[in-house]
Each structure stands twice: as structure tokens, then as C-alpha cells.
Amino acid sequence: MNMKKIIVTAAVLSGALLYAGGFRVSLQGVKQLAMAHTSAHAEDASVAFFNPAGISFIPSKLSVAAGGFGINSEVTYQNLATRETSSTDNPLGTPIYAAIAYKVTDNFSVGFSFATPFGSTVKWSENWGGSEIVQDIELKAFFFQPMVSVKLAPWVSLGGSFIYATGAVDWNRSVTQLGGNLNLKDDEASGKGFGFGFYFRPNEKLDVSVAYRSPVDMKAENGTATFDVSDAVFSSLGLDANGQDGFKATLPLSDEYTLGATYKVTPKWQVSADFNYHGWSAYYKLKLDFDHAVVGNQADDPTVSVVPKNFKNTRTFRVGTQYMFTDSFAGRLGYYYDESPYEEGDFSPETPSLDANVITAGIGYKWKGLGIDLSGAYNFQKSRTFDNKFYNFNGQVKAKAYYFGLGLSYNAF
Amino acid sequence: MKKILISAFALALFGSTISCDTEFETDINDVAVTSGEADFSRYVSLGNSLTSGYRDNALYSDGQNESYPSMIAAQMQLAGGGAFTQPMMPNNVGGFVGLPGFPGKLTLQVVNGSLTPVASDPAAALDNISSGGPYQNLGVPGAKSFHLLAPGYGNAANLSAGTANPYFVRFASSPDTSVIADAMAQNPTFFSLWIGNNDVLGYATSGGDGSNPITDETLFAQAYNGLVATLTSNGAKGVVANLPNVTSIPFFTTVPYNPVPLDDASVTALNQQVFGPINQILTAYGQGDRLQLLGTSNNPLLLKDETLADMSAQITNALAAAGVPAQQAGLMGAVFGQARHATSEDLIPLTTRADIGAAPTSPYAVAPFNKYGVTFPLEDKHVLTVTEKNEVLAATVKFNSIIKAAADSKGLAFVDANAKMTELFSSSGIQWDGVKYTATFVTGGAFSLDGVHLTGRGYAIVANEFIKAINKTYKSTLPLVNPNQYSGVMFP
User: Fold this and answer.
1) Which of A21-35, B443-457, B465-479 shows the lowest mean pLDDT across its residues?
2) pLDDT value at position A19?
3) Taking the CB of residue A315, how many other CB atoms lie within 10 A of it?
4) Would you say B118 and B56 are in contact if contact means Cβ atoms under 8 Å apart?
5) How far does B484 lie from chain A, in Å, by closest CA?
6) Contact A16/A121 with Cβ under 8 angstroms?
7) What DSSP assignment string belongs to B197-255?
8) Which of B286, B386, B459, B468 has the most CB atoms lying inside 10 A of its own CB?
9) How far apart are CA A107 and CA A109, in angstroms?
10) Cα gap A97→A114, rounded to integer Å
11) Are B385 and B341 within 8 A, CB to CB?
């Protein structure tokens, strides 16, 4: 299977939706999600996305892991001044992941991770209050990460990965003044980045994971803007005979620092905790640079549109636990708190984001090298009042979301 | 370690259960719309074209359905408001067949490659729908303050004399009634009154040529206070609005004062034979600032300013003395006696655009003096000169103080429409949910194709100002409307 097919397949299978923390979708391990999506779990190849150094501590020589999630979410908007109300009709989001890790020697491991760590799929109604900003949007990013890890000592490893990311954007919004709509589309955005980390196991009871994943600037170089408006205005807007124009844009995907630990309280019972720091401040504006269309808002260049985003860095706090009821059957619980990256004055309905408390749970069953895990989570999002000054768009939003996942792992030998 | 971790975990779970404010603090479905101290059960609206829903230089059904009083009435109906019937036009084009000066609506069409508002023929003869009344929207296009008090303003027999208005003739309850009488006959509990715009606008749009004078201040005060006294006489509450500065509407700001391009040959010829010599003569008489030499672009319009001293004789004599044939010298004196070039202070009405460069009907209009605004001065009606503009502005200020005083004396809700329109006239405009409205002609979205009246979206912005004023004064909770949900300028 060549790269393109993989991407296409992934694009069909996948679709992510965002609930909190910008458009980071923290669903890269089913077992991990059950324990609040904590990172210090080196039992199989699913650790690869969380920390490349973790693959050195997988107990088998070859390990594979894969899984998928379903996301059901709904965001509701209300405007107390006009009594308008509207809810999203989001399709089921289905982020997926797959990973493989192989120990070439006892101290040298290689691995590969595929994941969909960023995305946003939001479908508002066509004429809702914020339609000038977004009617519906689909943002996707696919991360392909080859990696290596070296054991520096029996208790510590260092790993690094290269990130190749590909992505797509498909964004519809109203152009109220012209009585029509605008579609912004690019299927060929791409970006590069890297990750590295240390994984420690100072004793048999404690795992510590320290990882960094770099920002990835997703560059859309060949976007197409299609205006569905009267053709009488095409030429004055600088559009071609089809009402189209090209555009360029860059969407920053935040970097992420992770500090995590798992402690085996008893041989059967372990607890985990994680702290994530997300560099969302990189997304301080969204600039759309049109080739010819004079639809921007910059005095010195009317083909450039700049929208302030003013995202701020965010933190996520996670705690989780696992109890082995038998040698092969595990029960898991977790809780995490995830911050929204923007204040009420910068609310972005194309990436609606609320502070969220998430309760997670799951079970796992192991049989020889094969593991099967189920998990679910409910996202209690804090309703918020917003007043976006740039758009003079204000109101309130609330949201609910739940996720469920099925993961498989196989530690071959 | 063990204890710490367990405690942390327990604390976190506990924290999550108490901090889950997932629901709205106030859900709109749980909030009732209330009328406060007002009674909206019988609401009537009085005013002029703005109140009727007039736009695109006509009154037509789509526009009426987006009149600001109909928007307000729909919100009132959430808080005990009664039916609100409008005197609907029989079609969606407007105008009256057989009545000069009442064309159908303007529509935007591509003419010679550019978008242009094009008038349509009137769709039907003047109808009469008085049997379908009473009507709650009593807005009459063209009405001035005192017209609302005038008996017979709706009498078809008075149309030829010009003392009746066909829009009121259509729905007046009887030939001899007045607008105010038809309003009071309904024993209204609430009224809106936005009148006075035409008391200054008519003068402005006619270029201050005298055909449509500004209403005398005393007459305006008498009429306005009379209207308010009558409307409140049965204890009704209400809302009144002041007058926007009409000189900032697109009708006066779209055509620049200096739109004239010329080719090189014309520039040379006109400067050598006309503007150079006349400028020299005027300069000799201390009037050198009237005219300027021409260039190839951005030449100011040539206009007649009756406030200037008439220099016809001086020009004719000087030209004759310089050897210009007597007939030619006499003609140039007649044409340029009170002529001057426009400045940025003069306002050029939208309707003048078609006349710029056209041939005047004057007997003096022989080549090269046969191009309006270029070589032949525009007439009084073509330009609102700076003097006339200042008259309009001064009257607006006076009328607005009368309106405010009347509102204050009766404790009525007051809409500062002037302030809201000033916001719209600014370059940043008025933004609503990401859509920016400005006073730019066609693309600004707030003004209709006549450059005077608003679009549905513009009227919605106005409706919101009325609603806010009503809520503030009477402690009601009428919801605002979303301007983006109404219609704007329609593109072909």
C-alpha cells in the first residue's frame, strides 16, 4: 500500500471532532483513554505516539497496536438578546491510530506511529447566528511518525521521531452581503515536525514519561476558494469565470509538553498522572492570502484576510488508575481537566472550545500476547458566555460529548 | 506516595462533580418575553417612507414585509402584542401607473458591464384598500411632519392639486380623514413616531432649488408637538426617533465632486480658450478661486452657485476687449457669470450622475458649452452646495432638539437614530455577527438602491434601536432581531 492510499483510506475512515483544547483531539490510545489518556504506559506499541522513548520498554520484541474511536458531540448556541438558538448536527467523529514497534537489539528500537491528533468537524445549521464565520467545517490532520529509541541505561531510554503531517480543510460559510456562500478547500496541506522524549523506569514500580512534540505548521499552498454568489460580481471581486480563486493559509498545530508517571501501588493496582502543556499561542491569527480576490480586510493588500485568534497556551491535568481483577482482566478509570485556549472575546465557532471535565473508564482483556481494550468517556463541558469583538458576535454556548473506543494490541514475541 | 496519589485522585473526582456547570445559567426557553410597563396590545406606527418599508425608490410588498414597525410588532406579539396589519401594495414592483413620479422599484442589473440600478415601470394603477383597514402601519412615503395632521391628505380629489398623497389615498379610512385621526380611531395603547425626515430631505434631494423648501421651524414644532400631544392623549406610551443627518446618506456621498476625465486635446483646448482666459478675468476682479485649470482626470464638476456675485458683464466685456467676437463673449459671460468648480464640501446627488456630461436644454448650450458639469454649469437642482448643505444640517439640529424635548416632556422612549446612522456612516460601520454594514452605496448592505432608504437589514438595525429604547424606558424585554436574517441588496 503506497502512501497515498494510506492517506486516502485514513481520510475516509477518520474524522475528528473537537471538544476542548483548541482542535487537539486527545484520542491516541484506547487503553490510555480509559485511564484519562495518561502517557506512561509502555505495555505495547500504542505508547509510540505518546513518547517515542517508550518503545524501548515494551516487554516484547515486536508489538503492534491499533484502535479507533467514535465521538458523539453537540454544541448548542443561544443568544439571549435575540432569542436565537441553534445546535450543531455533527457527524460521528472517528479518529484512529496504529503503531508498530520493533527491538532491533536489546538497546535499539524502531517504531512507527500513525494517528489523527488534530481535527475539528463542526456542522452548524446553514443560517445560524454565526454563519458568516462558519456553517460547517472539516479540519483534519494525519501524523506519520517514524521513530527510533535507544536505551541509555537499563532504566532510561531516549527516543526521537520525525513527523510528516498531511491534512485537509473544507470550510463553508455565508457571504451575507452578497447573498451567497463561500467554500474554502484544500486537500493537500502538509507540514513537518519532530518529537523526542525520555522514558524512565527507575524501579519496577514506577514509570516516568517526559516527552515533547514540536509544533507543525500545516501549510495549505493550493487552496481553492469558491464563491457561490451572483456571477455579476465575479469580476469586481477578482474571481475567475467559475467564481473561484486560489488561496494560501497556514494552520499551526500546537506543540505539546508531556510529563507523566505511573506507579504500581500493589502488583494489581496502578495509578497514573499526566500534565500536558499545549503551545496554542502559536495560533494568534488566521491569515488567508487570496491570489486575486479582493475579499480581504487589510488596507495595504485587499487580497489578504487576517482574523485574530489570540489562542493561549493551555494545560491538561490527568489522573487515571488500573486494577487487575485477574491476571488477564483489567478495569480502568480516569479523570482529566482540559482548558479552552481562548477567552470569551476570541470565541471561534469553527473550533468551539470549552473548559472540560472528562470522566473516563474502560476494561481490558489479555490472552497470551493479544490484548483487547474497550473504553468510554463523558465530557462535561462548562457552558460559557462569549463576546467576540472582532466579529461583534456574542452569545452563549454549551456542549456535550462522549467517546468510545476499541483497541487491539499484539505483543508477538 | 500511596496516600498522596489516592488523595489526589479522590480530590480530582470530587472536584469534577462540583464544577460541572454544563448547562446555561439562563436558558432562553425558560425566559418569558415581557411588556414591562407598556401595553403592546394595540400598536400603531406613524411616519414616512422609512416607516412604510419603502426601499429601492418604491413601496413594494417584499419591502413592506421588512418594515421596521413590522419587525417591532412581531417582537411585541411575544409579549401581548396584537395584530399588525400593513396597507400592502398589490404587487412586488410598486409604483402607480398613470401617476407621474411613481415608478416601480429599482433593480440591480449589469449595464455596459457594470452593476447599475435600473428603474422598472410601475406595476399597477392606484388602488384603494381602505375597506381592509384599520391599518396599524400608518407610514406614508413622502409625508412631512405637518402632513400627518392634514385632513384630506388621503383624498383622491386633492391629488391633482398636490395636497394629497396617493400612498395615503390608498388606505385612508375616508377622504377627509388625516393620518393622525386614523391612528387615534384605533385607540392605540402604544405608538411609534418617526417623522420629520422629509422636512429636510426634500430640500436636500432637490439640490436646495426651492421647489421643496425646508419646513419652517415654528411650523415643525407646532406639528410635532401636536402629534405627540394627540398620540399620548389617551394615555398611550410610545417611542419617537430623531432625524439622521441626511447629508451623509449614499444619495449624497456616492458621486464625487470631481469625477470628470478629459482627453489631452480637450484639456489643452479648454484651458487655452475658456478656463485660462476666464480665470484670468475673474482673478482680476478678486474671484480667482472660482475656477481652476483642467487636467486629464479628477476634474471638479462645474456648477452654478447663486450665492456668488454675477460676473457675466465683466467677463463679456473683458473677452470682447481682448478681441473675442461679441456673440461669443456674451455667451461665455452668461454661462460663467456665477459658475464655479465644485469642492469636496459640495454634495452631488446620486440622481445628478446621469446628467453629468449630458447636453443642457439652455439656449446658451452650444459647443463647447454643451456638457453639464464640464463646460456648462450644473443647475441649482443638481448640487447641494456647501451653503445649502449647512442649511440642512442646521435645520436637522433644530428639529432634533424639538423631537428630544417632546419625548422628554411626555416621558417617551427616544431613539437617537442620528447617532446610530453616524455609526453606520463611519468607515468601521456597524457589525453584526461578523457581517459589516456601512453607508457605501450597493456594497455597504444597509442602504437600498435609491441611496436614501434602507434595506431590510438596514431597517432591522433601526428596529433594534427602537426595541432597545422601548425596553430601556418601559422595562420590557422584547428580543432584538438579527439583521443578517433579512434581505439586503439583491444582485442579479
Assistant:
1) A21-35
2) 44
3) 13
4) no
5) 7
6) yes
7) HHHHHHHHHTTT-SSSPPPPHHHHHHHHHHHHHHHTTTS-EEEEE----GGGSHHHHSB
8) B459
9) 7
10) 5
11) no
Instruction: Tell me the pLDDT band of B21, cut-offs 50, 70 and 90.
Output: confident
The number of beta carbons lying within 10 Å of the beta carbon of residue A372 is 17
Q: What average pLDDT is seen over chain B?
A: 93
Alpha carbon dihedral B226, B227, B228, B230, in 10-degree steps, equals 80
Interface test with chain B among A357, A379, A389, A398, by most B beta carbons within 10 Å: A357
| B24, B443, B492 member nearest A396 (Cβ) | B24
Query: Minimal CA–CA distance to A378: which of B15, B18, B17?
Result: B17
C-alpha cell at A141: 490532520
Q: What is the DSSP letter of B168?
A: H
Yes or no: say if B449 and B108 are a contact pair by the CB < 8 Å rule. Answer: yes
Judged by a CB distance cut-off of 8 A, whether residue B24 touches chain A is yes
Residue B483 makes CB contacts below 8 A (sequence gap 6+) with B432, B435, B437, B457, B458, B460, B461, B464
pTM equals 0.91
The x, y and z cell numbers of residue B430, run together, are 456597524
- Domain positions in chain A are 3-408
Chain A CA closest to residue B438:
A177
Beta-carbon separation of A179 and B21 below 8 A: no
Name residue, grid cell 489631452.
B264
Domain residue limits, chain B: 43-254+386-485, 264-341+350-382
User: ω into residue B368 within 30 of 0, thus cis?
Assistant: yes
Q: Whole-angstrom Cα distance, residue B412 to residue B428?
A: 31
Cβ(A221)–Cβ(A248) below 8 Å: yes
Amino acid at A279: G
Residues of chain B contacting A400 with CB distance shorter than 8 Å:
22
The predicted-structure confidence for A112-145, as pLDDT tens digits, reads as follows: 999 999 988 999 999 999 999 999 999 999 999 9
Output the DSSP codes for B80-119. Answer: T---------SSSS--EETSTT----EEEEEETTEEEEEE
Nearest partner of B421 among B449, B391, B400, judged by Cα = B400
CATH no. for B43-254+386-485: 3.40.50.1110
For residue B183, the tally of other CB atoms under 10 A from its CB is: 24
- Gap between the Cα atoms of B312 and B292, Å rounded: 18
Q: Which of residues 259-298 of A touch B (CB under 8 A)?
A: 263, 265, 271, 273
Q: Do the Cβ atoms of A127 and B485 come within 8 Å? A: yes
Q: Sign of the C-alpha dihedral, residues B322, B325, B328, B330?
A: positive
Q: Quote the Cα angle for A51-A57-A60, to 5°.
A: 120
Q: In angstroms, rounded to a whole number, what is the distance separating the alpha carbons of residues B131 and B237?
A: 28
Q: Which amino acid is at B402?
A: I
**Unique residue bearing C-alpha cell 505495547:** A44
Interface test with B, best of A131, A176, A265 (most B CBs within 10 A): A176
- With both helix axes pointing from N to C terminus, report the angle between B312-321 and B276-284 in degrees, rounded to the nearest 10: 110
CATH assignment of A3-408?
2.40.160.60
| Closest Cα in chain A, distance from residue B1 (Å) | 9
For the cut 90, the answer to whether the pLDDT of residue B13 exceeds it is no
Among chain B residues, CA nearest to A272: B5
